[in-house]
């Protein structure tokens, strides 16, 4: 049985209805025949299924419908059409400040967030020290939440979501927040969580992060599904090529061609960078003093072809004096 299953899920927004213009204006426009509403489909006919332990990466440029789909998975929104089937309790990080009260302390917010996720106070008592320790907020437990930096807020939100043992963990860009050390720690924690059988969904503009952490890909473009697949490398390559040339692939052959074009382009970029580095190094060597040039050359040989120096290291020359 799938942990998460979406079947032809579509989500529609309506603008211009009586909630936006007021009852009086609504009646007048109806009487005059000038009442119109506009429909906007944020997602249209999205289908995918995740098993226990899967990590789905949702990719797509801004406006693709990624965050709207996450709200449907989280239960915040009900699909206009289609069906969403969820099995298990969900911990969702859709916005850093969601579920927190700025006037409450870090300690109070931790228990509040846990209660919102459905956990008892005794359970949160057991987890509290671990949550604060992982978030590195031991010295800020009695500080008001609104006084924290965005990085601190993200650390607390991520720590609570990860350490309360959810069945499904949903992350919208939160792994991209914080310093490098915490991003590495949170990434390692995510791998540990997935290894324990938790099902995850990650929305990220960092394709490297998606490549590293996800075993399935859902590619959205303007609310429409381009692909749902477990060929992560192939489709990430194609997506990065799409970001470069803005040509959306529609068939398997076009996906393959886009991936090959991406690999060829990266190869050319590496060769170009290598030539530029060589040219720059040559200029430095030609402009330098004799001793500096020799020292730089030796360093390059040690890095690139150390075997050339081994015989001299093993049997150094002795002075003839």
Q: Unreliable runs, pLDDT <50, ≥5 residues?
A: 317-321
Profile the largest sheet: 6 strands, mixed
Percent of sequence in beta strands: 15-25%
What is the count of DSSP helices, taking H or I runs of 4+ residues?
Answer: 12
Tally of extended strands? 9
pLDDT averaged over residues: 84
Report on this structure.
The chain is an alpha/beta fold. The chain is built from twelve helices and nine strands. The strands form two sheets. Strands 5-6-7-3-8-9 form a six-stranded mixed sheet, with helices on both faces. Helix 4 crosses helix 5.
Helix-strand layout with pairing:
Blueprint: E1 4-15, H1 18-21, H2 23-32, E2 38-50, E3 55-59, H3 66-74, E4 81-86, E5 90-93, H4 106-116, H5 121-135, H6 150-163, E6 168-172, H7 180-195, E7 199-203, H8 207-213, E8 216-221, E9 224-229, H9 232-245, H10 252-287, H11 290-304, H12 307-314
Parallel strand pairs: 3-7, 3-8, 5-6, 6-7
Antiparallel strand pairs: 1-2, 1-4, 8-9
Helix pairs in contact: 4-5, 5-6, 9-10
In a nutshell, what does this entry contain?
The chain is 50% helix and 19% strand. The protein has 321 residues and is an alpha/beta fold.
Q: Characteristics of this structure?
A:
6-stranded mixed β-sheet; disordered C terminus; 321 residues; 3-stranded antiparallel β-sheet; alpha/beta; 50% helix
């Amino acid at each position: 049985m799938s942990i998460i299953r979406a079947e032809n899920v579509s989500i529609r927004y309506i603008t211009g209805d009586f909630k936006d213009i007021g009852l009086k204006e609504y009646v007048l426009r109806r009487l005059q025949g000038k009442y119109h509403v506009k429909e906007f489909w944020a997602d249209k006919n999205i289908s995918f299924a995740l098993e226990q332990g899967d990590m789905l990466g949702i990719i797509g440029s801004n406006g693709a419908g990624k965050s709207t789909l996450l709200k449907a998975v989280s239960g915040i929104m009900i699909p206009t059409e289609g069906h969403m089937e969820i099995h298990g309790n969900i911990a969702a990080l859709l916005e850093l400040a969601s579920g927190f009260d700025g006037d409450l302390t870090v300690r109070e917010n931790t228990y509040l967030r846990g209660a919102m996720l459905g956990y008892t106070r005794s359970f949160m008592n057991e987890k509290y020290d671990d949550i604060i320790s992982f978030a590195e907020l031991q010295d800020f437990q009695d500080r008001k939440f609104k006084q924290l930096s965005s990085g601190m807020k993200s650390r607390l939100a991520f720590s609570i979501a990860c350490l309360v043992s959810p069945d499904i963990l949903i992350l919208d860009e939160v792994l991209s927040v914080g310093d490098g050390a915490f991003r590495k720690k949170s990434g390692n924690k995510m791998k540990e969580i997935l290894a324990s059988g938790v099902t995850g969904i990650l929305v990220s503009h960092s394709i490297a992060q998606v490549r590293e952490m996800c075993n399935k890909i859902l590619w959205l473009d303007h609310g429409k599904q381009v692909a749902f697949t477990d060929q992560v490398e192939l489709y990430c390559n194609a997506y990065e090529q799409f970001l470069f040339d803005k040509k959306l692939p529609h068939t398997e052959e076009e996906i393959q061609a886009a991936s090959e074009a991406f690999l060829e382009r990266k190869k050319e970029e590496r060769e170009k960078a290598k030539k530029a580095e060589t040219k720059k190094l040559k200029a430095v060597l030609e402009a330098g003093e004799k001793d500096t040039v020799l020292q730089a050359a030796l360093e390059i040989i040690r890095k690139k072809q150390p075997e050339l120096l081994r015989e001299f290291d093993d049997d150094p020359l002795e002075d003839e004096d």
